[in-house]
Structures are given as structure tokens and as C-alpha cells.
Amino acid sequence: MHSQIEDYLKGKSLLITGASGYLASNLANSLKKIPCKIRRLSRKNKLNSLEGNAAFENIQGEISDRTLWDRAIEGVDIIFHFAGQTSVYVAEEDPIIDYEANVLPMLNILEACKKNGVLPDILFAGTSTQMGLPENLPVNEACLDKPITIYDTHKCMAENYLKYYARMGFVRGTTLRLTNVYGPGPKSSSKDRGILNAMIRRALSGENLTLYGDGKYIRDYIYIEDILSAFLLASINMTSLNEKHFVLGSGQGHSISEVFHQIAEQAALKTGKHSQIESIDPPLDLSPIEERCFIANSRTFSKITGWKPKYSLSKGIDQTLENFILQGEL
């Protein structure tokens, strides 16, 4: 880890929401050697214990519960807000429940900070799909938001609340809108998330990899360690990032078909098991957001923070395969 990040975080008090989830559990694990206080907030009453120099405290509760936040934010310097409902399809089925999972918690955090006079830095995990279906690639922050799902509409609402409260001086806040994140970590609780990881697991077992249609749509895949370093670099550059959002990706576009073939080839080299790529008809209820092409232009964020992704797609897939094998997922 960057020594500047370690020095900055020493002695600070951090809150990580959604602590049992993919992003949050990876972040907590990456910070365990730093002598700081880490409060992990989760709906689950049991989280993995982490050994290191960090002092961990776990809080259990529902993020939509307004009374939870007074205790959760007490004495906190930095909040990594990763909690939320992540399925586009679940959001469409019940927009009110999705609002309670993805908008209300942000408002509750901000109101608790305002009421208690706590002035933390809040780093929020957004998504590149908030922009809808961009016409031109690569995409930067100048692209107008035209969300075409309830999920993305709610993500925009939460982000705008954060910007407003930051503008009013109650917190400092920034949003990193993530492209397709993959790599080691727990399985996603949503069927429409963590697709690359799911296909890597299938390839290790020699199962077929199922592709909707010809898999022509372009995605920007980014390895988990690159995302973690972006959030940590953001935490030490909040003066420049405050009230803003940034598009975060590798800057490299790959068709879904190309990536699935690459996974199959790299897995076969390690296991000797050969997976076939199977083209199937998309489901009738497939969200239009699935039919997008996206490549991120993260130059503005890189210029401010010095961040650069270190993992190529091939290297990231290889690292994920190695980790899954090590975890006994063969």
C-alpha cells in the first residue's frame, strides 16, 4: 500500500458500511495492518475476524433505520458507504424497497452528521450505469446522466444528496462511479452482479460459460485491487474531490464474448478443463441497461490523485483464478 495512505489513515476512525459485501470486505482486509479504528456496519451479526494492527468494532443493524446512524457515525473521520441493494431487477420489482435500501440510508447518514456536528469525509460507491446509454466512448464526467433503471435513478438521488450536504458544509463527499469490478472476494448476493467472477468459478469446474446472444457489447472490467487503491487515494485527496463524482474504470474496452473466451483459455491452462462458450437467447425481461457499451475515461480522477490501474484484464483474471484455486474452488 502507498505509504502516504498509511500515514494518513494512522489513528483515524473509519466506518465501512455493507461490511459483509464484496467491496467492503475487501477494503477492510486491505486496511487491517494499519493502526486505525475500523467500525464495520452490516445487517449480518457475524463478520470474519481480521487480525492486524487495526482495532475492529462491528455494528449490526438495518441501514434504513434512522436511529442506527447516531451510534454508527460517532467519532468517525471517514465513511466508506458501500451498503445497498445491488440488483437492477429487484429494484424494478419494488422501487420503494430499493429507495429504502439505496437512497434513505444516505439521507440518514447525512442528517445524522448534520444533527450531531460530525464532519466526516464520505466516499460513496456509485455505478457507471447511472449515465444510462452513452452515445460516445470513452465516457467521462461531462456525460449527462440519463438513467434508464430505478436502480440507477436511486443511485443518482443518493449521490445528489451527498453533493448537496457537502455543498452546505455538513460533510465532505465524493462518488466513484465504478465500471465492472471483478476479482477475489465473497460472491455477490445479486444474480446480475459479479458475472465475471461467476464465469471464472464455472471455468475452474469445466462448466459451460453462457453468453446472451453474440456477446458483442463492450464492457470496461476493472480489478478489485485497483478499485481499492482508488478509494484510498480518494480519501487523502478529499479537498480536491469534494462535491464531485468520477467515472472509474480501466480505460480498456472488451466485448463480453472476448472476455468469456479469455477466461476459458486461462482457466484451461491451469486446470486442464476446457469450458465451452454457449450462446443462449436473452431472457424476455432483460433490462435495456444490459445492452450498453461502456469504456471509462478516468483521466480527471487520475490527474487529481495520481491513480492508475495496475492490472490488465489478463493479469486480473489470472490473479482471480489463482485465488479461487487457493480457496479450494476447483
Question: How much strand?
Answer: 15-25%
Secondary-structure element order, as H and E?
HEHEEHEHHHEHEEHEEEHHEEHEHH
Multimerization status: single chain
Quickly give the structural class.
alpha/beta
Largest sheet, in brief, is: 7 strands, parallel
Give the helix proportion (percent range): 25-40%
Distance between the first and last residues' Cα = 30 Å
Unreliably modeled segments = none
| Beta-strand segment tally | 13
Strand order of the largest sheet: 3-2-1-4-5-6-11
The coarse silhouette is globular
Determine the number of helices (DSSP H or I, runs of at least 4 residues): 13
Write the layout of secondary structure elements.
Elements: H1 3-9, E1 13-17, H2 22-31, E2 37-42, E3 55-60, H3 68-72, E4 78-81, H4 88-93, H5 95-102, H6 104-116, E5 121-127, H7 150-167, E6 172-178, E7 180-182, H8 195-204, E8 209-212, E9 218-219, E10 221-223, H9 224-235, H10 238-241, E11 244-248, E12 254-255, H11 256-271, E13 277-280, H12 299-305, H13 313-326
Parallel strand pairs: 1-2, 1-4, 2-3, 4-5, 5-6, 6-11, 7-10, 8-13
Antiparallel strand pairs: 9-12
Task: Give a verbal description of the structure.
The chain starts with a helix and ends with a helix. The strands form four sheets. Strands 3-2-1-4-5-6-11 form a seven-stranded parallel β-sheet, with helices on both faces. It has a two-stranded parallel ribbon with strand order 7-10. It has a two-stranded parallel sheet with strand order 8-13. It is globular. The chain has helices at 3-9, 22-31, 68-72, 88-93, 95-102, 104-116, 150-167, 195-204, 224-235, 238-241, 256-271, 299-305, 313-326, and strands at 13-17, 37-42, 55-60, 78-81, 121-127, 172-178, 180-182, 209-212, 218-219, 221-223, 244-248, 254-255, 277-280. The model has no long low-confidence stretch (mean pLDDT 94). With 330 residues, it is of the alpha/beta class. Helix 6 (104-116) runs parallel beside helix 7, helix 8 (195-204) packs parallel to helix 11 and helix 11 crosses helix 13 (313-326). Helix content is 39%, strand content 18%. It contains 13 helices and 13 strands.
